[in-house]
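Exam review. A common question shows you a sequence with its C-alpha cells and asks you to describe the fold in words. Practice with the pair below. Do the first one on your own.
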Amino acid sequence: MPDSVESSRKPYVSALRTAAASAKRARVVAAASQSLREDGGLAGFSLDSVARAAGVTRLTVYNQFGSRRGLLEAVFDDIATRGRLDTIPQALAMPDPRQGLDAIIERFCAFWSSDEAIGRLHDAMATDAEFAIALTERNERRRKLLQALMKRLLPAEATARRRRDAVDFVYAMTSYAMFRLLGGNRSVDAVAELVKTSCRAVLDDAAAPRPT
C-alpha cells in the first residue's frame, strides 16, 4: 500500500477511535447521573455499578475517570453544563455589577431546580465524605466568583470585614440549602426575587458610609 494512502488512513482511524471513546464516556456519565436520580443510587454509587448500568467494563470506567471521585467530577461538570452555569462569566462581565449579581442569583436559582440529582448530592454530604468534599470544593468556586464581584460592588473604602460579611451573606443566600428552604411554596422566580432583594439590602448597608 502506498505510504500516502496509509498515512491518510491513520488520522481517519484515530478520529473514529476518539469519537468512540467520547461516546462511551458520555454513556458512562449519563449512567452515573441517572443512578444519582434513583432511590438508593447514592449508596450504590461506584465504578462497578456505573459500569454495569452503562454496559461497559469497570476497567473502561477506571481508564476514563481514574476513580470514583473522578467520575463524580465528570457528573458535576455534566450537570453544571446542562444547568447553564457556563453563562456565569457573562454575568460577571456585565458593565453594571449589580445587574451581574442579579443574573448570578437568577442562574443559580434556576440551576438548583434543574436536576433532582443536585438535591440528592447535597443530601449525601451528611453520610458520604467523598461527596461532601467534592461538593464543598465546587461550592467554594461560587464564593470566589462572589469575592471578585464584590470588589466592583463595594466602594474602595469598605473595610475588609464588611466585604467578607457581604460575600458570606450572598454566598449563603445563593446556596442550594437556602433555595430549598425558600422554595417550599414559592416559584423559582419568586425565590430569585426574594434573594435579590435581601442581597441588595445587605450591599446597600455595606456600601453606606460609616460615621468617623
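Now try the second one, then compare your answer with the model answer below.
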Amino acid sequence: MEDLSIYRRVTLSRVLSISALLFALFAAVCLASLCIGVVAIPAKDLLAAVAGALGVSPSSPSEEQIILLNVRLPRILFAGIVGASLSSGGVVFQALLRNPLADPYVLGLSGGSALGAIVGIVLGAGAFCLGVPFLAFCGALATVFLVFVVAGGSRGLLLDNSLLLAGVVVNAFFSAAILFALSVVNSMELHSITFWLMGDLSGADGKEMILAALCLLFGFGILYAQARKLNLMVQGEETALQMGVNVRATKYILLGVTSLVTAVAVSLAGIIGFVGIMVPHMMRLVFGSDHRLLLPAAALFGASFLVVADTLARTMIAPAELPVGVITALCGAPYFIFLMRRKGRG
C-alpha cells in the first residue's frame, strides 16, 4: 500500500504557484496559436488588434482583428475548455479504477455521449435548448451503467481489468450503433457528422462556449471538493471506508459529474481520444498523485495540450483542416502502448 504521508506535502501555496505557472503556459500557448494559421499574423499586429478591440485604437476593425477575435480566439478558448474537461475526466477515472489506462474514451463514455448526440442531431433535438447535450449526457450515463453491469457490478464484484474490458465491449457496441445511425442520414449530413465524430472544434459559438465553460466550472468544483476522498480511494476502498469515506456515494457523485462534463464536451466537439490518458499520467509523473494538485494541473495542461493539437490540425495541411482527434490519436496511441507495456512489466 502506498504511503499516505506523500499527500501531506501538498500545500495551498504549492497548488496556487503550480496552477499559476501552468496557466501562464496556457496563456503563452494561446498567444502563439493566435499568430499561427493560414494567415500568419505578427505579434505587433496581434497587439494592435487587441488594442482596437478594447477601444484604445479608434480605427475600424481590420482583417487581422476579425481573424483573431472572431475566428481564432473563440476556437482556441473552446479547445482549452474541452481539453480541461477531458483531462479532468481522465484523472477521476484513473483514480476510481486505480489504472493509468482508464479514461472516458477507453471506457466508452465518449462513444456513448457521441451516440446520444447523433441521435439528437438525427431527431432534430438541436431545435430545443440543450437538446443535443442532454441526450449526450443520457448516453454517457447509459454507458456508465452498462460498463458496470457488464463488468459484474450487479454482483458486487468490480475488478480494474474487467471494467476496462467492459468499456472496450460497450465502446464497440456504440461504434456499431453510430455507424447504423450514420447509414440512415442523408449525404449532406453524413460528411459533417463524420468529421465531427473525429473531433471538430471549428463550429464553436458563444452559446456553446458558455455552456461548456459553466459545466466545466461546476463539475470541476465538485470534483476538487472530493480530492481528499480520491486520495484515500486510490489506496483501496477498504482504506477509504476505515477513514470514514462513504465510498458508494462518492463513486456515484464522481461518476455522475464526470459523465456530465465529458458528455457536454463530446456533444459540442465530437470524440477526441487519448487526452484523458496522456495528460493525467504526465502530470502524475511530474507533480505526484495528490489530487488536490493533480486535478488543477491536469485541467490546465490538458487545455494547453488540446490548443496545440488543434493548432497543428488546422495548419498541417492548410488551407484544409484535419480533425483534432486525428492529432490526439497520433500522439495517444503510441503513449497508450507505452503505458500498457510499462504496466505489464510492473
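Model answer, second protein: The chain has a mean pLDDT of 82. The domain at 4-345 is CATH 1.10.3470.10 (ABC transporter involved in vitamin B12 uptake, BtuC). Full marks require stating both points clearly.
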